[in-house]
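seq:
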Amino acid sequence: MSRPITFLFFHYGQIPRYLSYAIEHVRIFNPDAEIHLITESIKETSMLDRFGIHKFQMEDFGSEELNVFKKSYRHLSTFNEHYEKFCFERWFVTETIRKRSPERIYVLLDSDVAVFSRASDLVPSLPDCAISLCENSPHFTFVKGSVGGFLNFILDNYSDPTKISHLENLRQESQNKGQNYNLSDQAFLALYMKESLEMQNYKKNTTNGCIDTNIHIPDGFEFNQLRRRPRKKIFWQMESDRVIPYFTNGDRLTRALLLHFQGPGKRVFYRFNGGKFFGSKLGLFVLNQVFQNKNVANFL
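struct:
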């Protein structure tokens, strides 16, 4: 019997419009899934009530390990300190949530991701480990077991003067080379993966289609070189009354299981399947112009 699935959305700061689109797509393509939204301090989230989600604050999931982390955290990043700390803290909160219902599989989904598939379809092909990331990107992460090993790894690095000094040296060496090395939770994920089989990657190219890790990275597919950066071309089709994205490589169409609208890509994150417009012939034409026509794309 398949295990029930819970999607976890951790969001820092004000609620953007695209977050509701991301949650709506989860609800449409995963109608039986449980959805949690965990924010740091935002109280007004009534605009999301129609999706039947459970809303929490980070403070609802305190733990001894989280308290230890808050006391030992060292900010070694060029990004906002509170945001970086929040990204670390979400892993401690995830483990607290998991312990309360260990029978479930948890999917951590970034706020700028639109899914077009059932998460349960991927579960049988995932690595046999607690935490599965898509090729080093935590935007679509499956948690099937304890996150405790990763939490201990974080705490160990921050509590050991020798190890934190080593991390500081790595960052300094990168800066000397003109590189931007931030000790974010994503950097710790990569370091932990080298040490433990409890965290492994899964391939973006699955038997059910392609998992997009960044809409601005071509990944061998056709793309438009826009003013700021490239963007994959997307060919939209209607299937079973749903608008579905495809990538192309020559004459070959590859279904996209999700799209990650990272950075400026958020400007073209629309309510693809929430309303009726994009399901019409005119709406489908507009979508294909936005995502295929370079002149149109440069204005968006």
